[in-house]
Amino acid sequence: MLNAIERIKGLGVYGDYAPPAGTKKFESSNVIYGWNYSGKTTLSRLFAHLERGTYDGDSSGYSFTFATDTGQVTEANAKDCGHVVRVFNSDFVQENLNFGNAHGRPILLLGSESEAAQKAIAEIAAKRLRINQAATNQQKKSDAAASALSDAKKVAAAGTKSALSLVEIYTATQLDIDLRVTQLGLEEHKLSEQDLEAVTKLARTPDQDALPPMTKISVASSLAEIWREAGLLLVQAPEVAGAIQRLTENPQVANWVERGLALHEHTDKCEFCGNDVAAQRLEQLRSHFSTAQANFKARIETLLARAWASRAAQPLPSARAVYPQFRERFDQAGSKLLAAIADHDQFVNVLEGELAAKRDDLFAPRTLVALSSDPAEGLRKTAEELNSVIREHNGVAEHFKAEKAKAIRRAKLHYAQLFDDKQKLAVKARKQERFKERIAKIRRMGEILDARKRELEAQINQAQKGREEINRRIESLLGAESVQIRVTAVDGEDRFMLVRRDGSVAKRLSEGEKTAIGFAFFLTKLLELPDLSKAIVFIDDPISSLDSNHIFQVAAILREAFFEKNEGAWSTKCKQLFVSTHNFEFLGLLRELPMGDKKNRSYYLVHRKAPGVSVLCDMPLSILRHSSEYHFLFSVIDKFHRAEDKTDLEVLMHLPNAVRRFVELYTYAKYPAGTVDQRAEKLFGAEKGRRILKVLHHFSHGNNVERLVRNNDCMVDIAAVVADLMKLISEQDERHLEALLST
């Protein structure tokens, strides 16, 4: 037996509910009253959770605690709590009756089946429960492993996206695609640190930072050939027939004389001292500086020019001219080339020095050391190393977008391979396969049991009896001319079709007809229970959309279906009965049901305290003692009118609705025609009528604390409106007011 609701969290208007202190415990008969949208249907859905044993498909995440005579029931153990619960509400109507195609679900009654079949079905149900639990346990393990792997994939994909600065989407879905490639095993996708760094740099290079191709370095050198020629020339001397020994032995003097000799072509005076120079002496000097000597010197000058031209020194491009992934290698190769150039040009310096010395002293033999290796070879090797980097750069520069895409692809597959290795995906995949095999095996066992259960149920199927019972209920609710149910075969199974008395398919049913059919269907399905006395039944607003003429029929049906008299005392046929309603008149009829001793019944009120906050509490005596909604509404208004503190938001939340409803009923009794505004104008006058209804209309539609606080000037006006209303009734209908006050 359910004793109380101790806690509700996160379920609709019950964000964090605990019962007010002193709230009565549930009894065998329980009546819940509350206005529309106060939270009654939400309570019925909480009881429906006990019926299903789990969350429904539309909501989850809330929690609750029921106190029962066998311990607490929560969302965690609802499936195994053992309580038999049946709930009628709008969800039941929607789920069980398909009014769109005029078919309902087949009914299976268990009232007159054989005892052996019932026992077998019960045993199958127990086995099925164990099988379901076993399958659930395996599925939970499988889901937990899959969830952990899914989370790991999300983290890994985010890491790859961040590492490569990807603009495009890269999620666990794209990682799965890459994993399928790496798992083919056709090639190795893991990169070395150096390669990974290179592709990462290219992948992270923005398109607008693309670099142009670079010209290769050229360092051709003929130093070895010049060195060889110079070595031969340096040991030679020019052939001079009339050589002057002093000039031969003094190259500085000889050079001085040779330069000055050209100044004396047309004079016999010495330009240095002014003395006469003999023609014979000039001829001797000209003979010393012969054509052979001049040619010899010219050869030296030619070699000097060639040596100078063979210098390899040249500026190298900046490393910033190549893509980041090549810069380190470019710097290293460039440093080697500069060193090789320095070595090469050092040999050029030596060669130039020797040739210059020979030019200044033509007759002195000089020896040039033979080269052990060709200095140009070092240039060629280091230049080729640098040009190799340039070629790689140019390959990217000439096809930047394609190369960048290739780099991104290589990096993605690298990270996918690392993820595969780290997570041991092959092992986990085999484990998931084992889970699937176990679950499939367990389910096959369950299917075998289900097939056997269907065989037993077919033996005791009493769909015709169910149809007759539903039709009887519908007729008692809607009258003899109402819709009826006819059993027809659909896909080999019995289905219920709704038809009119003339045999036509019932279409466009009113909401009242739907409610009546759904309630009749629910009452008939209760006959499936082997023992109604062990069931907890919750019925939410069974008169929804029914007019007042049918309220008495519903009350009579409740009396017939759920109450019985044994040895002069009335009691419920079920273990516990809960009935909720928003209709005050129906509440009065519920109070008149034979619920047995007062100690076996409880009355509750559901009301909104604030937006998203509803409370289930004991029904105030001010509601229980009134025989009509009209009297109750007046008691609310009168209590507020007499109260000294008229700023209580909890009271103000409900007052506009109460006053508006009271005005509707009061004016209708006086003038049963027109709208409430028109009737109020007739009774109170145009100005007073508009003043009263303007404020009530404003706050009675979507009233909440925020609306009241935001309109605090209007909030003050509510008290004035109530005062005006009481004054107008006192002036125009004093006896009626006295009668209301007397109640």
Helices and strands in order:
Blueprint (H helix, E strand, L loop, with lengths): L1 E10 L2 E4 L11 E5 L6 H13 L10 E6 L2 E4 L9 E5 L1 H7 E2 L4 E2 L10 H49 L8 H11 L10 H11 L19 H12 L10 H5 L1 H11 L17 H10 L2 H19 L14 H37 L14 H24 L1 H24 L1 H35 L3 H16 L5 E7 L2 E7 L11 H15 L9 E6 L10 H12 E4 L2 E4 L3 E6 L2 H8 L9 E10 L2 E6 L2 H4 L4 H14 L6 H22 L5 H9 L1 H15 L4 H6 L1 H21 L1 H9 L1
Parallel strand pairs: 3-14, 3-15, 6-11, 11-14
Antiparallel strand pairs: 1-2, 1-4, 4-5, 7-8, 8-10, 9-10, 12-13, 15-16
Helix pairs in contact: 2-16, 3-4, 3-13, 3-14, 4-13, 5-13, 6-10, 6-11, 10-11, 11-12, 12-13, 15-16, 20-21, 20-25, 21-22, 21-23, 22-23, 23-25, 25-26
Number of helices: 26
Q: What is the terminal-to-terminal distance?
A: 38 Å
Estimate the helix proportion, in percent.
Answer: 55-70%
Spatial shape: elongated
Strands, count = 16
The oligomeric state is single chain
Instruction: Detail the poorly predicted runs.
Output: 100-114, 701-713
Radius of gyration: 54 Å
Which percent band covers the strand fraction?
5-15%
**Global mean pLDDT:** 83
Sheet having the most strands: 6 strands, mixed
Structural class: alpha/beta
Would you summarize the structure shown here?
The protein is α/β, with parallel strands linked by helices and 743 residues long.
What do you see in this structure?
With 743 residues, the chain is of the alpha/beta class. It contains 26 helices and 16 strands. Strands 6-11-14-3-15-16 form a six-stranded mixed sheet, sandwiched between helices. Strand 1 and strand 2 (14-17) form a beta hairpin. Helix 4 (172-182) packs across helix 13 and helix 6 (223-234) packs antiparallel against helix 10. The protein is elongated and about 175 Å long.
